[in-house]
Amino acid sequence: MLAPKPESNNETVKIMSIHSERPLSPHLMIYKPMLTMMISMMHRITGAILYFGALFLVWWLAAAAAGPEYFSLVHGYLTSWLGLLVLFGFTWALIHHLIGGLKHFLWDTGAGFERPMLEILAIFSALSSPALAVVVWAIAYLVR
Amino acid sequence: MSLRTPLNDAKNHGSAHSGTMHFWFQRVTGIASVPLTLFLIILGIYLTGQSNEGIMATLKNPFVALGLIATVIVFAWHMKLGMQVIIEDYVHGKWAKYAGLLANIGFSVFIALVGIFSILKISFGA
């Protein structure tokens, strides 16, 4: 038993309270927000968004399997202006997570951790994902 | 007193007793997701502006159906692994954590089953 007894010793109480209030990983509040950190967080956030976005994909597929009436109802929801806005958001999140994933494959090789490269990669993923989402939707509407 | 050596405990197993397979399958499903995501985006572009009958005809195409089944399986697997890490990072209450981990498996399996069943039903006659 190495743990000190919580007696009236003030120093002991203080140490124990520091120990119990020690922030658990990842404790975001003590860091100054930085670009690389924000983009890293966006990878997890877009992943969580896409997790629930899978419901929309499967709902749409289930509607197609259910029959023409229900499919046209669901397809109508998803192609309303609100539905299209949500789908554009998912396209953005999907491409952001794709670019972030490719970045992780690069990091898995041990490359890309140097200072300027790290910032370039962060800026690239922040800017390329909305740009590519717009390009995808522009192509979709141009070739329709 | 165990006769197991520390090396034997360490082999293939970290403190979570699951070794590196979580990391490995996160990467394997991630690599598979790259072409499957491109497939999904191209399919979305192709289906844009089509009539409902046209969409159904495309979904009945065996190559599209196989691509969609692969996409649903790989995405559901990747989702399960990713959300598991999020839960393990942020949910520390014992019961809440295990409830979350089980719900995560349930949700991912639900996505995979409904997706696969729907695609098969469309292909074999809906």
Topology:
The complex is a heterodimer of chains A (144) and B (126).
Chain A: H1 10-20, H2 35-66, H3 68-78, H4 81-108, H5 115-142
Chain B: H1 6-10, H2 21-47, H3 52-60, H4 62-90, H5 94-125
Helix pairs in contact in B: 2-4, 4-5
Name the CATH superfamily classification of chain A: Fumarate reductase/succinate dehydrogenase, transmembrane subunit
Extract low-pLDDT stretches of chain B. none
Tell me the CATH topology of chain A: 3 helical TM bundles of succinate and fumarate reductases
Helix content of chain A: over 70%
Q: List segments of chain A where confidence is low: pLDDT < 50 over at least 5 consecutive residues.
A: none
As a whole number of angstroms, the C-alpha radius of gyration of chain A is 24 Å
What would CATH call the architecture of chain B?
Up-down Bundle
Class of chain B, according to the CATH hierarchy? Mainly Alpha
Largest sheet of chain B: none
What CATH calls the topology of chain B is 3 helical TM bundles of succinate and fumarate reductases
Query: In angstroms, what separates the terminal alpha carbons of chain B?
Result: 63 Å
Question: What can you see in these coordinates?
Answer:
The complex is a heterodimer of chains A (144) and B (126). Chain A has helices at residues 10-20, 35-66, 68-78, 81-108, 115-142. Chain A is mainly alpha-helical and 144 residues long. Chain B is an all-alpha fold and 126 residues long. Chain B has a single domain, classed as 3 helical TM bundles of succinate and fumarate reductases (Up-down Bundle), CATH 1.20.1300. In chain B, 81% of the residues lie in helices and 0% in strands. Chain B contains five helices and no strands. Chain B has helices at residues 6-10, 21-47, 52-60, 62-90, 94-125. The interface between A and B is large, with 36 and 37 residues.
Features:
heterodimer; A: 144 residues; mainly alpha; 3 helical TM bundles of succinate and fumarate reductases; 5 helices; 0% strand; extended; B: 126 residues; 81% helix
